[in-house]
């Protein structure tokens, strides 16, 4: 299956090495907003910001001599998710972490691909103008990859410009718009990372992770130090099964997907995922992981908001 998809995923804000179960409505004090709302990275705020980004792309492309029709964020496959999979053991017995169990197994175009009006605009151009269009929109590197017929499924795993991802700077109108429109988690990326580092060094976090790891070792899983490790292990095996290739700037290309995946290997990995996820869930229950995570998460998020009193949602 050859498809192109962009998935904008906000980094998990859980503070106990793994991801917590949802947003933190009590972390913003008297404002009445959740932590995500205060930072402007809740679903509604991010969609409102994306609408501004799309308008900025249209303006930028017009300056480059091309038409561009802004996409409606509410109709796209942009997802803003906070927290990790449910730790409920009953759910995990059928869903695991949702990595293989949530996979779309019937091959079909990625969501929104055929509905993008800009697809028709691009395809109506000559071959030379299509390349120029791609360079203007996504930059020379991505445009050359597209021209070469890289195919596969391309997933944007990281929010922010290529400069923030370690690249040389904005590469096209899409990248420039993301950099120039105010708001978005990348604007506070350094501060959020510092908050995460401080939280992970908290003695309570270290202790609960140690207890969880000991519990997992008793079930035969000795290589995991924290819940994130277990989930990332499954994600790594799934990436390998799909022929994942990192392309830089947070973009990963998948060589295969849907019905093209080896279904026998997928079934084996799905069973392994469920087994690990259930063991993980049971160990979280046994060690009181969720309670500790909730308390520390709220504490550090509130401290962050206290240190950034001028934050307003969506600005």
Task: Describe the 3D structure.
By secondary structure, the protein is mainly α. The chain has one domain (29-115, 153-307). The protein has 12 helices and 3 strands. The protein has helices at residues 35-39, 43-63, 89-95, 117-123, 127-138, 140-147, 173-180, 189-200, 203-218, 227-241, 263-287, 289-307; strands spanning 153-156, 244-248, 251-254. The chain has a 3-stranded antiparallel sheet. Helix 9 packs antiparallel against helix 12. The longest helix is centred in the last third of the chain and has 25 residues, at 263-287. It is globular.
Considering the chains and any ligands shown, give keywords for the structure.
single chain, 315 residues, mainly alpha, 3-stranded antiparallel sheet, 12 helices, 3 strands, globular
């Amino acid at each position: 299956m050859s498809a192109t998809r962009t998935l904008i995923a906000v980094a998990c804000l859980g503070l106990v090495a793994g991801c917590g179960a949802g947003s933190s409505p009590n972390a913003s004090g008297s404002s009445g907003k959740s932590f995500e709302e205060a930072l402007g990275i809740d679903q509604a705020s991010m969609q409102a910001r994306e609408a501004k980004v799309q308008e900025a792309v249209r303006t930028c492309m017009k300056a480059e001599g091309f038409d561009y029709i802004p996409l409606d964020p509410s109709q796209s496959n942009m997802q803003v998710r906070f927290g990790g999979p449910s730790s409920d053991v009953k759910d995990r017995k059928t869903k695991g972490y949702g990595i293989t169990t949530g996979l779309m197994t019937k091959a079909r175009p990625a969501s929104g691909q055929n509905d993008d009006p800009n697809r028709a605009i691009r395809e109506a151009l000559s071959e030379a103008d299509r390349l120029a269009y791609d360079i203007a929109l996504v930059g020379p590197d991505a445009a050359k990859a597209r021209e070469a017929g890289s195919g596969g499924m391309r997933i944007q795993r990281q929010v922010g410009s290529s400069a923030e991802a370690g690249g040389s700077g904005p590469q096209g109108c899409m990248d420039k718009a993301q950099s120039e429109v105010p708001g978005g988690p990348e604007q506070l990326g350094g501060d959020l990372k510092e908050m995460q580092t401080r939280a992970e060094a908290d003695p309570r976090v270290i202790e609960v992770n140690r207890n969880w790891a000991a519990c997992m070792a008793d079930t035969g899983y000795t290589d995991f130090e924290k819940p994130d490790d277990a989930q990332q292990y499954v994600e790594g095996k799934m990436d390998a099964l799909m022929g994942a290739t990192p392309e830089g700037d947070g973009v990963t290309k998948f060589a295969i997907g849907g019905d093209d995946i080896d279904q026998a290997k997928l079934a084996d990995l799905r069973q392994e995922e469920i087994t690990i996820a259930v063991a993980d869930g049971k160990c979280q229950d046994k060690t009181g992981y969720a309670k500790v995570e909730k308390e520390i998460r709220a504490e550090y998020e509130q401290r962050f908001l206290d240190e950034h009193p001028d934050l307003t949602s969506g600005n």
